[in-house]
Amino acid sequence: MTERLSRNRASIAHRLRYAARNPDRIAPYARRLARDTWLRLRARDHVAYYRAVMRSDAARSPYGAVGTADHDHWLAIGRLQFDYLLSHGLKPSHRMLEIGCGNLRAGHLFIGHLEPGHYYGVDISPDILFAAQETVTRNGLQDRLPHLTPVRDLRLAFLPEGHFDVIHAHSVFSHSPPEVIDECLAHVDRLLAPDGFFDFTFNRTTGREHHVLREDFYYRTESLTALAEKHGLTARLMDDWEKNPHKQSKLRVTRPAPNGG
Ligand SMILES: C[S@@+](CC[C@H](N)C(=O)[O-])C[C@H]1O[C@@H](n2cnc3c(N)ncnc32)[C@H](O)[C@@H]1O
């Protein structure tokens, strides 16, 4: 665990060791490197770049685009997210915003659980939102009237103040540079209901912060906690999430208790 957390996947030494251990992955990695370089050169910023990555990935497979190998794995990762929030008190009456909802891996379970109209999913990728609509149809969730909205940024200015009891972002900041996370943390407070919270997962490192192909970003917990503090929010690492087999860690962001209590 400790070795995994301190590993720098961007270092030449790591890449050479990885290639020696996984020779079959060299060609796919080279193809990804070429594609990502091309997409990055044509994009004006990170969001435009990542939207293009999602377009390319979703055209091949919406399951693969959200990081799962097949439908069973997709279901399992969705269930993991859902069971966790259920065990933390998610009620049908709650209003939920899912940032980077993808093709509703967990979203289809949230939508089924929440009262009609109480689920709001946003994503930068219109292509994955088309796949999300298919998930709604396949699961017979039309009557739940989920909102599925494309966004250009995470200022989320079009959403109402104090509206959401739970804001959730799974495997989104693991693909986001610091300025995207900063923007989200600067605006999320406005959207939270008085006792609301914002949970997000991230790739945790105890070593040097780094990224791979500007697709996967690795952060120290302290950096993200400090970023939340900069915006007047409190962030804590969710230890109970660490017990499950998922590779990412989870932070919960709330408003500080009054009088620091
Ligand atoms: C790995 S997928 C995870 C999707 C979903 N959260 C899940 O668990 O299945 C990451 C998703 O986040 C979206 N995304 C990435 N950066 C984003 C951003 N800055 N704002 C909104 N969505 C974003 C991607 O388009 C993609 O659908």
From TrEMBL:
Enumerate the InterPro entries for this protein.
CFA/CMAS, Methyltransf_12, SAM-dependent_MTases_sf
Give one GO molecular function term: methyltransferase activity
One Gene Ontology term of the biological-process aspect is: methylation
* Matching CDD domains: AdoMet_MTases
Q: Where is the Methyltransferase type domain?
A: 97-198
Key word Transferase present: yes
Keyword field? Lipid metabolism, Methyltransferase, S-adenosyl-L-methionine, Transferase
Q: What is this protein called?
A: Methyltransferase type 12 domain-containing protein
This chain's source organism reads: Actinomadura namibiensis
